[in-house]
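[audit] Reproducing an earlier prediction to check determinism. Same input, same settings, fresh worker. If the tokens differ from the archived copy the diff job will pick it up downstream; this log only records the rerun itself.
[audit] input (228 residues):
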Amino acid sequence: MQKYLTLYLSIVLVLIDVSIQDLGKPALLSGLGDLDFSFLRAPTSPAGSGGDRNLCNCHGAPVQDVLTVSYHGSISHSVVLCMCNNAVTGASVMIDTMGRVPAPIRLYNKAMVSSPAGVCGGAGSSGDVSYYCSSNMHVSVFIHESAHSMDRGKSASSEWRDAVARDTCVPDAYANSNFADNFAQVVVLWVHLVGTGRHLDFGGSKFACMRNQLHQISRYLPATSIHT
């Protein structure tokens, strides 16, 4: 009993720690959805029927269909696609948009869920499963949610928190929420900078206020690994 109580308290403390985080940094941009990601291309991605239905959290709605999508490119891997009843985004759009997420970020996903409208706050992720509750969401959202799976504890590390502390800004207001969302937003920004050829000087003077964060992301996600 004591073991389970200790585990429960540990989980609660982690949740409290995340919920009260406010990085308190100025936001450089109003958002990342308007950045250029037109360079991203989806690889060949045949989809077959079937997959692990246990990954399909439809937030109370019935699961309508389950597919397994196999992405073939610089890194080949498979992702389960869960189509919920009254899903807001069609299967082909889900497959194509997730395919545009660079493979080193995408490969940690076990499943993606096209949910009914309004059952979550736009999009989210948990346990390497990302879910999308608004129609035809921007590729930057798919990169962000996939980056949470790529995180693997990096955003909680002292090296990441030190990088944030040394900088004077974060990408946008959402990145100010907590270290995990900050990490994911910096990944989104880094993909944009690499794809537009502005990564060599970490975006230049415009992004100098977050150079340490970008430098740290470049160590986790080298520019050469992002095939566009």
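[audit] rerun output stored. Observation attached for the diff report: The first strand starts at residue 47 and ends at 49.
[audit] end
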